[in-house]
Here is the input.
Amino acid sequence: MLAGIKLRLYPNRVQKDKLAQMFGNDRFVWNQMLAMMNERYKNNHHLPFLGKYKLNYLLPSMKLEFPFLKNSDSS
Here is the structure.
């Protein structure tokens, strides 16, 4: 038997700001990686697709290029 629990969180102002920052950074990184993959495919569509783990190696260099990404979690 499966059981579920409904839960609602009420974050305070600081937590809302932190969540908004993290979601914004996630969107930014996603869009940057997508643009990079599209450009890579456009230049040479025979190259293999890079998976999640290979793209994770690019995060430290992105954090150096865009310092506001250091405000989010590492993953």
